[in-house]
């Protein structure tokens, strides 16, 4: 929020003029060059997979049933089943990663927003932790479940999660353990991140950073309602407004026994 106050002394009184308040402008000045990642994703995870792909391009290819090489792509939504049930890209498969079984309520890890963690650790893939909560299957089982749906190692697979963190790891796993060759990460994810626009001074980038001359970004209120919320994020379902559905198709669900679904 930026408030400009201009004070003038007129005669014996103090008159303060307050300029219009730009309620929907958040200024970020603490971003330093050290935060720049060259790994191609916002969390700095390893990238064994082919490339990232935008939500829009992913949807174009899926709706055409054809990518640049003429292959029919599939979207795999790796969020928790509860997230998938609330809404997902039209036609997406539900295969959660980290991979879990059993009741979400039993294994829920609300503190971290995950049902649980994979018990494997592979720094190339970028797993988060190893606290061994129940209902969790090893990485090979996640890949094995994908193999049930995707037989062709050269079929394009687009991974999607909430913000593009779990999906990166899932994409790495499919390349390393599943030998899939055309794996891409939908980098915005379903919800995405706030949008920022650069403004102000051009920074001097050095190997040690330049705190005296930081980047300056403003967060964008994309729907002009004066509030920063999920609707200002750049993901599949919000700013991008790409097709979603809540219908559950049994054949596309990871664990249909947990939910009441239509065939
Ligand atoms: Ca807004």
Q: Would you kindly provide a written description of the structure presented here, covering whatever features stand out?
A:
The chain has a 5-stranded parallel sheet. A 3-stranded antiparallel sheet has the order 3-11-10, with no helix packed on it. The chain has a two-stranded antiparallel ribbon with strand order 1-2. The chain has helices at 55-64, 81-86, 104-107, 139-149, 166-178, and strands at 5-10, 13-18, 26-28, 51-53, 74-77, 88-89, 93-94, 157-160, 183-186, 196-198, 217-219, 244-245. It is globular, with a radius of gyration of 22 Å. Helix content is 17%, strand content 16%. It has 2 domains: 1-30 and 194-232, no CATH class; 36-193 and 235-258, Oxidized Rhodanese, domain 1, CATH 3.40.250.10. The protein binds calcium ion. The site of calcium ion has 8 residues, from loops.
């Amino acid at each position: 929020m930026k408030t400009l106050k201009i004070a003038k002394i007129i005669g014996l009184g103090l008159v303060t003029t307050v300029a219009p308040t730009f309620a929907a402008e958040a200024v970020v000045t603490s971003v330093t060059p050290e935060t720049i990642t060259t790994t191609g994703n916002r969390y700095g995870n390893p990238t064994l997979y082919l490339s990232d792909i935008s939500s829009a391009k992913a949807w174009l290819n899926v709706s055409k049933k054809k990518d640049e090489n003429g292959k029919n792509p599939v979207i795999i939504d790796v969020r928790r089943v509860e997230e998938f049930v609330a809404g997902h890209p039209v036609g997406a498969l539900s295969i959660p990663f980290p991979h879990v079984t059993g009741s979400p309520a039993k294994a829920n890890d609300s503190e971290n927003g995950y049902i649980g963690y994979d018990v494997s650790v592979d720094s190339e893939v970028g797993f988060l932790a190893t606290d061994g909560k129940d209902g969790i299957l090893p990485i090979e089982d996640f890949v094995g479940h994908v193999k049930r749906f995707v037989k062709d190692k050269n079929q394009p697979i687009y991974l999607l999660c909430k913000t593009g963190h779990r999906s990166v790891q899932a994409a790495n796993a499919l390349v390393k353990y599943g030998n899939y060759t055309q794996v891409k990460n939908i980098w915005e994810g379903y919800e995405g991140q706030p949008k920022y626009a650069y403004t102000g001074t051009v920074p001097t980038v050095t190997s040690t950073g330049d705190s005296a001359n930081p980047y300056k970004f403003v967060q964008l209120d994309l729907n002009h309602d004066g509030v920063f919320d999920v609707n200002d994020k750049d993901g599949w379902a919000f700013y991008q407004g790409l097709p979603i559905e809540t219908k559950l198709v049994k054949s596309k669900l990871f664990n249909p026994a947990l939910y009441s679904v239509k065939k």
